[in-house]
Amino acid sequence: MSDPNPYAAPEAAAIPTTDEISRQMQGLQWPLNLSFKILALASQATVTDARGRVVCFTRQKLFKFREHVEIFTDNTKATLLAEIKTQKVIDWSARYHFTDAHGTDLGSVGRRGWRSIFRAHYEVFNPGDDKVDYSIREENPASKFFDGLLGGIPVIGMATGYLFHPRYAATKTAGNIAMRMTKRAAFFEGKFEIEKLDQSLTPQQELNLVLSYMMMILLERKRG
To answer: Please, are residues 44 and 58 in contact by the beta-carbon 8 Å criterion?
Structure first.
């Protein structure tokens, strides 16, 4: 048996093949579709793949001083898949930590403070790591501005989804786009398409980016 190559790059951490998260992430057909009901009292979102299979369903707890999002395998909420929590009540640079149903660390996403006021900017981290793995930035902030400004106006707001399509790109430090989320036209709901542009992404990276996009949308919805 030959000795391992000491110069080889370390293998990326993989999601255990026996857990519920792995089963949900296997065999996904891209692009994914993320949607949420605009008139729902509690913020909730559903992610489906290109075949219509439900990947996950999220519901944000009401009346919580700290952000707490529960993620289920589907809208029956019978099986808890993961949770997203932050330790701080109000913080523009808060980190939102992902854990599975057993409390195992899956990664986190953080809003980039005041830089996110006029242009969404979030940073994605691997489990137990403070080094930025990906950055999510709004590619066309003008589109987001007019979509938010006119979206609440009766009649006119119904057409904004067909005029403005905000885009959010997840990139490595080198600038290569790994995923892109684009708002799509829809009545009485927010609808987004998530494209995977980097085919070398590991299941762990895919999961972190999808959860980051979900948390970002819930936060951006509050921002307007």
So the answer is: yes
Q: Domain for residue 143, yes or no?
A: yes
Q: Are 178 and 198 in contact (CB under 8 A)?
A: yes
Q: How many residues does the chain have?
A: 224
Return d(Cα 66, Cα 69) in angstroms, integer.
10
Our count of domains for the chain comes to 1
Domain containing residue 126: CATH number: 2.40.160.200
Question: What whole-number distance in Å separates Cα of residue 190 and Cα of residue 114?
Answer: 25
CA distances from 215 to 58, 100, 151 (A): 10, 15, 21
Could you read off the pLDDT tens digit of each residue along the chain, which spans 224 residues? Answer: 455 555 444 444 554 444 678 788 888 999 999 998 766 656 788 999 999 999 999 877 655 546 788 899 998 999 999 999 886 655 556 789 999 888 999 999 998 765 555 678 899 998 888 889 999 998 875 555 555 555 554 444 455 555 557 889 999 866 789 999 998 877 767 889 999 999 999 888 898 999 999 998 888 775 54
Half-sphere exposure of 221 (CA within 13 A, CB side): 23
Give, to the nearest 10 degrees, the angle between helix 141-151 and helix 156-163: 160
Phi, psi of 132 (to 5 degrees): -65, 125
Q: What type of residue sits at position 72?
A: F
Distance CA 15, CA 21 (A): 8
Instruction: With beta carbons less than 8 A apart as the criterion, state whether 109 and 215 touch.
Output: yes
